[in-house]
Protein 1
Amino acid sequence: MPGDPVAIPVPAAAELHISTSSGRVLVTAEERPDVLIEEGAPSPDKIASDATGRVRFASAKGGSAELEVRCPIGSDLVVGTISGNVTLRGPLGLVRVTTVSSNIEVESAEQLDVRSISGSIEVERCPGRCTLQTKSGSAAARGAGDAQVSTLSGRIELDGTTGKVRAQTVSGSIDVGMASKGDVTVQTISGSVHVEVPPDVRPSAKLRSISGRPRNECPPGSDCEIRVRSMSGTIEVVPG
């Protein structure tokens, strides 16, 4: 019957494709040999799976049911939703989330691509490429490798970055905390910009503000390049 828990055996890791309209989505990666749809499962004939571990399904009740899913550690995940919040727990592989107004929380993903219109995005760990895009929501990531983040009016917070950073907003503030040397490129119109650099890193800083006076407290060098452009926001580059 629709809604009853459904278990699908998979190889060491799975590739999940999940879609829903307004229901909440909760996915937990853990040590297990199958994909278990605990809540919101459609009838078994509505679930497509194959021997490679690819599993596709939509939530029951016309796409509005809450979904709770458990999958093997390192599984890849694709989630599409309109307004249901998305929470991802445990270590996942390549993750892609597309939504309209959902809030997204990600505990750990090897690579991440999240796109939203008005929802906020919060990421605890993403050592690979981390792409976050939202219009009016905020975006925050910790422990990211190469990070590419854009908003219109939402705040951007990046902490513990280990690779290249590219951040862009219109009026939201941008805070970047570097864990190691890596090029940083920031563009904003009226938002403030704050970049913290590891004490042993000497960057080449190219800071430009039309109405403000950029402040750079780091010793100059060539370990990496920090480029910041702003129309009217304050710019600070300081040792962490």
Protein 2
Amino acid sequence: MNVKDIRRQNLRVLARSVGGITQLAERLAKSQSQISHLIGTNPIKNIGDRFAAEVEQVFTKPNGWMDHEHPVINEEGGIYRVSGRQYYSEVPLLNWQEALQWLDPKDANFAGNNKKNSYQYLTVPCVASKHAFALQVEGDSMEAPSGVSFPNQSLIIVDPEERANNGAYVLAKPNNTSPIVFKQLIIDGSRRYLKPLNPRYPLMEISAQAIICGVVKLLLMEFK
């Protein structure tokens, strides 16, 4: 598959993730016809370098993301696939204290040594590193009145090896002695902030010494 086809495939995946071509056009501040010309049933235009960069910026993807194949959801089976192959990961379910130990490079568990003997494991539909883990959200600071929201007691899949870009949902330590917190990372020039999605909680500016411990790749919720 060439770069033109890969970009088209990736933009179609993003369109499905936000609800369709109309929603994607609104997100990118483009007309619906412009997007249809790129990813409609019979596309008549290719996605250029400038537009690909705009998409990456709007969706907080790393530079060059549009030019590479990524795991996507097979709509019939609900399984992540690339080129016909299935993708999933097994991750340990940790509590917050265990997560703190897991993220400590001096702890043997960080390297995955004998970890299957210690934790309950979950099979989750995403590609993750061997250091990834599942964690239950505590509190309501990441519950948003609209849009993306992480309710109390929902499960998140965290990968310490993922790059934390602007807008990513992260686990972080504001300083060496503070506990781990779950917030959205906001980068504004040389300044960084940890943003709760619940407007009742304050925005926190962090210093260069703050540690980003991992990036949230997936939210799991059980509907009762």
Protein 3
Amino acid sequence: MTERHVNPEDFDLYALGALDGEEKQAFEAHVHVCSACAAEMVAAQERVSLIGLAAPPAIPSPAVRESLLRRIRSERADSATPTAAVSSPQTRPRPHPFAWLTPILALATIAFASLAVWLWTRNAEYLRQIDALQSQLASAQTQSRDIARTAADTDKLLGMPGTVRVGLKPMTGMHNGRVGVLYNSDMGMVTCAGWLPAAPPNKSYQLWLVPMKGKPMSLRVFSGEWNEPMAMHVPAGMVAKAFAVTEEPMGGMPSPTGPMVMEGAGE
């Protein structure tokens, strides 16, 4: 004869505390002698525990908190009142039929707490990676827009009368690097393209426009490797005698102080 088990729905109902009366007594009696149903009951209690972990914390209102405190104080006062009933010294408390489940449930609670911490940590790491990728994307978009504007300015310069091309040549000791400049004094516009290696430690390369009259004007400072076209605006009517690249302290200087590494004559 096939052994009859409890109703499958009773596992979740029991875990939620929804069984009572004869149904609860019959359920507990069966689970106490059936290992398969006992394991299913543990699984149902774990599911209910997960539901409790997933719920967002609820903050009670001050009125609810005060009502609960009054109820606790009242119950403590009632429990302090002596009762006439005296238990028999020969009566021994009957062990709970599911006492053996207590350590299992404790281990399950610890496991679920560890899992929640691990999931939170992984989620935080994913969020950091997403932020880094978004930052890289924004930087790439800005760089693309700058390159597009520089290309448009270069096309504009090439089509205007009075545009001058200047190629900067490496000086002694500067074995690498190539820089080409287009400038139009009437438009007050300069574009620059080429490649420069990274500057020495704690140093920067600085690009200058050397006018026919007055002090050199700083156009750009490079610390790391440079290989992107760029466009700059200068005062209209400023005629360039030369363009130069010097080695300066990190971050550049208001006027040239270091050795010249590249130079090209203007008009």
